[in-house]
Design brief:
This protein has helices at 2-23, 28-51, 57-78. By secondary structure, the chain is mainly alpha-helical.
């Protein structure tokens, strides 16, 4: 359980970090929002994996990445 939470935090943090650079986040607030969106997206992917009863850690990791990427793409499309 703890490993899953840490994995979600790391994936979301990295996804948000790279999203902040792709948005050209010139302000700290914009950058922090990008990081938070990446973390939330990763946890959404993790929740989806739990709802589907995924036991494989590699598949769970992939779902974390997909969740973060989808939420980041939605944010990019809206803003």
């Amino acid at each position: 359980m703890l490993v899953t939470i840490l994995m979600g935090l790391i994936v979301g943090l990295l996804g948000g970090f790279f999203m902040g650079f792709s948005f050209g986040g010139s302000t700290l607030v914009g950058f922090l929002v990008c990081v938070l969106v990446g973390i939330v997206g990763s946890f959404i992917g993790g929740f989806l994996g739990s709802a589907l009863k995924v036991k494989n850690k590699v598949v769970q990791f992939i779902l974390d990445i997909v969740g973060a990427c989808v939420l980041i793409a939605i944010l990019k499309a809206v803003f």
